[in-house]
Amino acid sequence: MSNDQLQMLLTQTPEEGFELAVKLAQKGVEITQPSEEIRQMLRPVYSRNADSLIAVSQVVAIHFQTVAAANNYWRMQTPQYWY
Amino acid sequence: MSNDQLQMLLTQTPEEGFELAVKLAQKGVEITQPSEEIRQMLRPVYSRNADSLIAVSQVVAIHFQTVAAANNYWRMQTPQYWY
Amino acid sequence: MSNDQLQMLLTQTPEEGFELAVKLAQKGVEITQPSEEIRQMLRPVYSRNADSLIAVSQVVAIHFQTVAAANNYWRMQTPQYWY
Amino acid sequence: MSNDQLQMLLTQTPEEGFELAVKLAQKGVEITQPSEEIRQMLRPVYSRNADSLIAVSQVVAIHFQTVAAANNYWRMQTPQYWY
Amino acid sequence: MSNDQLQMLLTQTPEEGFELAVKLAQKGVEITQPSEEIRQMLRPVYSRNADSLIAVSQVVAIHFQTVAAANNYWRMQTPQYWY
Amino acid sequence: MSNDQLQMLLTQTPEEGFELAVKLAQKGVEITQPSEEIRQMLRPVYSRNADSLIAVSQVVAIHFQTVAAANNYWRMQTPQYWY
User: Fold this and answer.
1) What does the pLDDT read at residue D4?
2) Residue E51: closest CA among chain F residues belongs to which residue?
3) Angle between helices D50-70 and E14-32 in degrees, nearest 10
4) Does E touch F (3+ CB pairs < 8 Å)?
5) Dmax over Cα atoms in chain A, in whole Å?
6) What InterPro entries has UniProt attached to this entry (chains A, B, C, D, E, F) (predicted)?
7) Average of per-residue pLDDT across F49-66
8) How does DSSP assign F15-61, residue by residue?
9) Is the pLDDT confidence value at B27 over 60?
10) What's the mean pLDDT when you consider all of chain B?
11) From CA E24, how far away is CA A18, in angstroms rounded?
């Protein structure tokens, strides 16, 4: 995503929205550490550390909140229990 | 959930919404560490570490916020104290 | 709460809402570590560690946001300063 | 606050709202560690540790979001730049 | 800010709103550690520790969410892309 | 950004909004550690530490929530699935 511009937050499905949240989390890392070489060096460490993986998942969760709100939660119709 | 596409955020009950939040938290880990073998190796460690368990619970809490909002908090009717 | 299904997020009072937030935080732990035996073993450790207690309190705070929003903050009437 | 029931989230001022947020953060700790004796033992440790203090401040911040929203941010009037 | 009462969350600009968020983060620390002497002792430690600085920045970010919402994001006018 | 005043939260694109979120995260650090010399000394450490990078990404994510909400998620038009 390094060279990608972030165009918009709308996606067709929650699945694509989740992928966008992952990209946003990565983008937050890339801006602080632009060297792909160093990021690749770090990967074997954090990807085998449970606490690091949980922390990554948390950043994704925060971005997914944003993306889901932007897409109005991909609601197709008013649910039955709507008031 | 690895092969599951995330279809929508609407669920019938808060219980199902909580389960979805758990799956979203797992999905955030799986994307960073796709190897199920390595994830299974890590499990005995973090599942017996109180701080890791609390951290997992936090990620679930963030996703549950999103899922609950998407479902308009599963409100069946306007509560009495509604203004 | 292990056997309890989460029925709804509406509660009569903020106090009950806080209790629900605590249960949701516990539920997030139970799903990752279903063994009550192991959870009981961990308890003396994290319940005497200030940082663990603060972390638990944070998860409760996140769930309380959700429960409070679901209950429209238990507002009985429009406050005076409402615009 | 141990014996206090949480009655409502409305307060007269942001200052009182902040105090309520602090109480909610403490309440989250008290539920996990009900012994005031143990909590008093822990206090000298975390109250002199910068990272613990920052963590406490974060829990307060999350609860203050909830309390501020419940009070509609204590807005007395529509600000000039309102749209 | 120790002696300041928190009067309101409205500010003229985002810059002032950010300053308020910083004060709220400090206030959360001061309530747990009221001694300015001890806080001054801790300062050289956390202000030279990257992880502590990032954690402080996170607390500020959470309060800035609250202050920004309270000020309706300091919007002067409806943006072009408003729907 | 040290000398920049934060003028407004509106940006033309999500990309610019993300850049603003990064600046806000940095600003939160600069206020606690105003010395650029010390910040530059810390940089090689945290920029090569996976957990620090993830923590920075989390602060950016929180600010991006604020900026995205301020910009009404840069929606150009009501999406098809709008209710």
Assistant:
1) 61
2) F52
3) 120
4) yes
5) 53
6) Hexamer_Tyr-coord_heme_pr_HTHP, HTHP_sf
7) 98
8) HHHHHHHHHHHHHHHHHH---HHHHHHHHHHHTT-HHHHHHHHHHHH
9) yes
10) 88
11) 32
**Inter-chain residue contact E66 with D64, CB threshold 8 Å:** yes
F76 contacts in chain A (CB < 8 Å): 8
User: CA–CA separation, F25 vs F27, rounded Å?
Assistant: 5
* Touching D: C residues 2-61, CB under 8 Å: 13-15, 17-18, 22, 46-51, 53-58, 60-61
Please report, in angstroms and rounded to a whole number, the separation of the first and last CA atoms in chain F.
41
Listed by start position, the domains of chain F span: 38-73
What DSSP assignment string belongs to D13-32? SHHHHHHHHHHHHHHHHHHH
ipTM, two decimals: 0.90
Burial tier of D79 (Cβ tally within 10 Å: 0-12, 13-18, 19+): middle
Q: Residue B52 pLDDT more than 80?
A: yes
Give the C-alpha separation, A25 to A6, whole Å: 13
Tokens of F36: 């650029």
Note whether B47 contacts C38, CB cutoff 8 Å: yes
Contact check, Cβ <8 Å, B82/C63? no
Residues of chain C with pLDDT under 50: 1-3, 77-83
| D56, D65, D72: residue with CB nearest C79 | D72
Tokens of residue B67, six digits = 């899922």
